[in-house]
Amino acid sequence: MESQLTVEMILRHHDLTVEEVLSLPLFANFTVDEAEDLILTVKKFSIIVFNAHQKLESDDGKSD
After folding, report:
1. How much is the pLDDT for 63?
2. I want to staple 34 with a disulfide (CB 3.0 to 4.6 A). Which of 7, 18, 30, 60 is the partner?
3. Using one digit for the tens of pLDDT, what is the confidence trace for 31-60?
4. What is the rounded distance in angstroms from the CA atom of residue 27 to the CA atom of residue 59?
């Protein structure tokens, strides 16, 4: 069964854990190191997307 995305999952106040990653069928074969790398990659990607969004939002207020 596939996990359902919930509001609680979106509004997390803590990082994803290795145990949570490894508990998902897609990542069950990952080593601890691979799970840690995945977590770091997701965090970096999230920061990039957030910063890009913030930049777009601030640029929308400027006139050309």
Report:
1. 53
2. 30
3. 999 999 999 999 999 999 999 999 998 887
4. 38
CA–CA distance, 28 with 38 (Å, rounded to integer)? 13
- Return the closest-CA partner of residue 32 out of 41, 45, 19, 43: 19
Alpha-carbon span 35 to 21, nearest angstrom: 6
- Give the burial class of 21: count Cβ atoms within 10 A of its Cβ; 0-12 exposed, 13-18 middle, 19 or more buried: buried
Alpha helices per DSSP H over the chain: 7-10, 18-23, 32-60
Q: Tokens 């069928």 label which residue?
A: 25
Handedness of CA 30, 35, 36, 41 (dihedral sign): positive
